[in-house]
Design a protein that fits this description.
two-stranded antiparallel sheet, 9% helix, Pan_app, globular, signal, disulfide bond, Apple domain-containing protein, mainly beta, 2 helices, eight-stranded mixed beta sheet, S_locus_glycoprot_dom
C-alpha cells in the first residue's frame, strides 16, 4: 500500500501472491508445488493423488495419500526418502528439539510410528544444519525453492 498525500488515502501498489505456489495448501497434504512445471502440483514419492479425477481437472487441493501404508505393528520396515530443495511444510503438528543432531532425529523418527518427516531446524552457516523439527501429521504447503532444505520423509521400504 502507498499513502496518497493529496487524496489522503491508501492505494494498492502491489499485491500477491507472486506465483501459484504462494496459495496456501494449493497441492494439499503430501503434495509438492513446483512453479517451473506446467502442472504445478505433484505428490511426494510414495504417495499418489487422493482423487485422481480432481487432479485431472487441475484441482490438487485434496492432496495425496500413501501408496503403501506404514505397518507399525509386527516390525513393519520403514525408511527415509530425502526430498531436496524445498520450503518446509507448515509446522502444525510438529515439534522442535534445538539440541538434537540430524542423525539422532532420523533414528527417533524411524522409531516412532507417528513420525511423518523431519528436517534440520537451524540451517544457518551452511552444512547439514543442526537441531531437529519433526512432523507428526500431514505435510501441507511444501514447495520447491532455490536454496531450499532437505526434508526426510518416512516411507514404507517398498516405496523406496
Amino acid at each position: 500500500m502507498v499513502w496518497d498525500q493529496g487524496a489522503g488515502t491508501w492505494n494498492v501498489f502491489s499485491s500477491g501472491p507472486r506465483d501459484q505456489c504462494d496459495r496456501y495448501g494449493l497441492c494439499g497434504a503430501f503434495g509438492v508445488c513446483n512453479v517451473v512445471d506446467a502442472v504445478v502440483c505433484g505428490c511426494v514419492r510414495g504417495f499418489r493423488p487422493s482423487s485422481p479425477a480432481e487432479w485431472r481437472m487441475r484441482d490438487a487441493s485434496g492432496g495425496c495419500a500413501r501408496g503403501t501404508p506404514l505397518q507399525c505393528e509386527g516390525g513393519g520396515e520403514a525408511g527415509l526418502y530425502v526430498l531436496r530443495g524445498v520450503k518446509l511444510p507448515e509446522t502444525h503438528g510438529s515439534t522442535v528439539d534445538a539440541g538434537a543432531s540430524l542423525e539422532g532425529c532420523g533414528r527417533r523418527c524411524l522409531a516412532n510410528c507417528s513420525c511423518t518427516a523431519y528436517a534440520a531446524s537451524d540451517i544457518r552457516g551452511g552444512g547439514g544444519g543442526s537441531g531437529c523439527i519433526q512432523w507428526f501429521d500431514e505435510l501441507v504447503d511444501t514447495r520447491f525453492v532455490d536454496g531450499g532444505q532437505d526434508l526426510f520423509i518416512r516411507l514404507a521400504m517398498s516405496d523406496l
